[in-house]
Amino acid sequence: MKNTNMTKTIMLALLCSSVLSACQSQATTQNSTSAASTTAASAPAATANAATAQVSTTPTPVTYSQDDEYSDWTTANPSYIELSESGASIKGSGADAKDRTVTITAAGTYVLSGLWEQGQIVVDAPKEDKVRLVLNGVEIHSKESAAIYVKQADKAIITIQEGTKNVVTDAAEYKTEDSQSDEPNAAIFSKDDLTLNGTGALTVQGNYNNGITSKDDLKITGGAITVYAADDGVMGKDLVAFKEGTLTIEASGDGIKATNDTDASKGLVHIDAGAFSIKAGRDGIQAAASVQVNGGSFTISSGGGSAKAVAKAVEMNGGMRGPAPAAATTRSTATEAESGKAIKAGANITIAKGTIGIDSADDAIHGNNNVDIAGGELTITSGDDGIHADSFLLISGGNIEITKSYEGIEGSNVTISGGETKVTASDDGINISGGVDGSSIGGRPGQNNFSSSSTNNKLTITGGTVHVDSTGDGLDANGSILMSGGTVFVSGPTANNNGALDYDGTFEYTGGQLVTTGSAGMAQAPSDSSTGRSLLMTYSQTQKAGTVVELKDKNGNIVASFAPDKDFQTIVIGSSELKKDTAYSLYTGGAKTVEFTIANSTTWLNETGVTSARSTGPGGFGGGPGGAGNRGQAGMGRP
């Protein structure tokens, strides 16, 4: 994304007092955002509350018991298991060794050390028992199955002892105990709850399938853990939760995964803190239900990264997908195995804070239901959508920079009430859609489906700062747009088959700072029914990128000043500084272009002055109304 001119644009626009006020309001909103907030701040409250009322993204709290935390195991009267080439030496009760297998059959703490080639540790204790395995400088290499197999226990706790390095490796081919269920199928495999804690280092090599798997809850509260996996890296069924630690994953399949898709209250990935480096052949983080991020730092590469994305069809004529450019191919229907999303949820995604860097072949952030971003620092490079929600997408805080995408932000309903959002898109910057999301791939039945009714689809902007640099439409609503606050700058398309603004219903503009630049063929302005004032200027000739445009009042005071990043032929300006029956002048490249008086909510201009509805100005371009149900194009107007 080229931010230099965009930044200059916003800084110059801040000369007007209305934008200063808006930015102060935005700062207040960001500072007051809570971790679980899904409230769309700023006016109109009725609209924001109505949107929020339909969204259920409040994070499910995750509790950690005393067993989940690291404790001094030396006071627990542990049993010691020393592993070596000659066999296993056991000091204490509750464990037995036979051939190359150590079986633990009772509750207690078991300290493992030494090298165990062609060996396995099995936990097969009563269902009510808790078993702690302390990895105290141990290497376990199985040649037939999982290296650590928790067959039964109430819970297994693996403690990684401070200052030690530990290695666990499974077989490339298993003598599977249960061929029908393919269990076990991970280097560390548990049929019951599993927790990893401590501060030492653990390397897990999953040669057969997964690295670490729990068929129930999986919690990690500490440790420096590195996982290599032939398929998925770290998997839990009902819950995968992280409280602290460092996790590095290289997986041919998914990086982190929660699989329970039969109980809506389960199948969660919940992250409170930690450092994560994930390189996944498919999805980076995937939850059957929801993903909740309350902190942590993340570097995620999924599906081979954005460079591996399938080429997309171009967007043209307000949303109809046309042929792809030369040497490109349109996307075909794909399977779950081909999904390369960075963060994906079968229901909701909530991000409260954290530092997240993403390079994804498919969507970077994808919720089959809702997405709520209330904070955090997000840097996204995507081969498809930057952020996608099948239903509601809420942005109330944080700093989001989408440096590369096909469509930047996409959902049936998008509400932006705070934060700073920067989008670079090869197609639409912000897209409000109905029907099926044809540009996205992968997922279970029901994924990638939008609400079918475009009359209910809305883009609502009540606060925050939004920068869009798009080759297709800048703000594209297959429905309506409502703007009552915030600052929006769109550096839109240069080709006439797209527009900086594109909406099917109405664009009700009531406040905030709005500046859009782009081509003339499909240009639109806010609706005439708006209570705020705006203008659309159409030039007879294309203006060069970097040309400074200034809007001044009759006393020569600057209302807005900006220098578009790309060539442009139309400009839309909306500001609370614009007053009815007041004279203004528009300067382009230092020269006065046109003088005019604001008479209506939307004023249509060319070099000759104010134009009437559907009139034609120099060069064949003109303006039309933007009223209810009217697309209000300049130039190549539709019937």
UniProtKB/TrEMBL annotation:
Low complexity biased stretches: 48-58
Compositional bias of kind Polar residues: 446-456
A Pfam family it matches: Cthe_2159
Segments for region (Disordered): 48-70, 434-456, 609-639
Domain of life where this protein originates: Bacteria
Stretches of the chain forming a coiled coil according to its record: none
Tagged with keyword Isomerase: no
InterPro entries (UniProt xref): Autotransporter_pectin_lyase_C, Cthe_2159
Segments of skewed composition (Gly residues): 435-445, 617-639
Protein keywords: Signal
Signal sequence, renumbered to the chain: 1-27
Protein name: Carbohydrate-binding domain-containing protein
Species this chain originates from: Paenibacillus sedimenti
